[in-house]
Structure prediction request, 566 residues.
Amino acid sequence: MADDDLSSPLLQSPRADQSHVIIAVQDDDSGSDPSDQDQLTRRNQTRQNSLIDNNKKDGSISWSGSSRNPYEFVGSDGLSVPGTTTADPFRNDTLGVTGFYEIVKILVCVPIALVRLVLFGLCLVVGYIATKLALCGWKDKQNPMPKWRCRIMWITRFCSRCILFSFGYHWIRRKGKPAPREIAPIVVSNHISYIEPIFYFYELSPTIVASESHDSLPFVGTIIRAMQVIYVNRFSQSSRKNAVSEIKRKASCNRFPRVLLFPEGTTTNGKFIISFQLGAFIPGYPIQPVVVRYPHIHFDQSWGNISLAKLMFRMFTQFHNFMEVEYLPVVFPSNNQKENALHFAEKTSHVLASALNVVQTSHSYGDVMLYTRASQLKHEKASIYMVEMARVESLFHISSLEAVGFLDKFLSMNPDSSGCVKLSEFLRVLRLKPCTLSEEIFGFIDVDRNGTIVFKQFLFASAHVMKLPLFRTACELAFAECDTGGNGAISEHELGAAIRRAIPELNEDEIHGLFNLFDSNGDGRISREYFLSCLRRNPLLIALFAPSLMHKDLLGVGKKTLEEIV
Prediction:
């Protein structure tokens, strides 16, 4: 899937499925005064009796449905997980060649495809040479390209139309007209295939926002440099900030071309509008939305879960590929929305969704990363690990890279074909043994109370614990409690002594397994850095240190730490 666009804070769009599963987990004596330290300690030390059944033959563990909240001591009042959705905005519906008509058509079009391939290559080379001539000797790239160089770029633009012709887009239906650049300096569009950037280059010759990785692409990198591209690294906050500044600078000057963005940040199958990134909306200029459609019966032209080579081959072997482009009315930010990019993006997103008559979801490029990672690890139903990352980032402020890390952890638990993990596999990966606390941790995640967990529940639970106001303070105090020697490192004996307060039945081998989980570099000691890093990767394990922290005033320590930071 394509990676064309600016990565800014992600927009949480309305979901296709609004159903939620909300479980409020409270202790029996929740009405007690939280300021009473003695009562708080007694409440957190109270354990409900659970039934852990160790099967004699296969060693599996049955879960008895414990409902105690093991994270109440760090401020959790229970876990809420939105209901799952079957929407898949990235699925290409014609991955395989099916039907007698389609097979015969491909066989007939193979000779035509060879001619089209030659035309494609010839146009690409001619356009590349023309672009090199236009760029030759041009050093002042902070200012608009001189007009005589732009005239040379018309050769490349004509070549881009010929490239579209080689892909089977012999004619393209248009509806509406581009607004004058003085009225709408920014254009946004839905993103379905690699075809749209080629079309917009021919039609509008805009400045585009693209990933830094595109600069190294053969031929393409040179051409987009001539478009005075705004490069961005979606994973770098400073890069995103600089990109927004460049968008604002170029949009404010009529001597520059209009700025084109694909605010979804990746390609979809055109049946949904996913969450918008905010780079196009932060500057607060009027925006003209444009929608692209690819009507089809036998061949889905979307660049979803299909390789580029296969998609190009299928395009070359079609008699004709249909494409429709509709220029919508300009969307103006209101006075108060000019300072609120989120509202402006929501309004524009709704305009595109209404024009396409499709549903809006909270998926984002982060879901593409999760899908890709699951596919790399050979999971057949990779789409079940998509979680609508825009919603997750909005709720918990965790990055897509962090979510991929949690997915790696979850997939190591050997989920079944439906993506469910049992208690025994969960405990194996977290190096825990069957006990009351382990069951409570699992029960905290299993909001459906069916004895298994899915990735979305695991991710929400981990992110929920990480976001708790006292989590960071609890991690710091847990290290201090374990480091009884005061030498800035924890030994295996010290870690075992602290964890046995929560799970007294742990033997030496089990302590050693947990120690290895924290001891990332294997030097036989756990530094503060490795300890905190392990808890960030495995935030659910903070429950192991609850008994050691019961006598601590976490809230007071947290306020003091915050004052020291300020």
User: Anything to note?
Assistant: The chain has a mean pLDDT of 84.
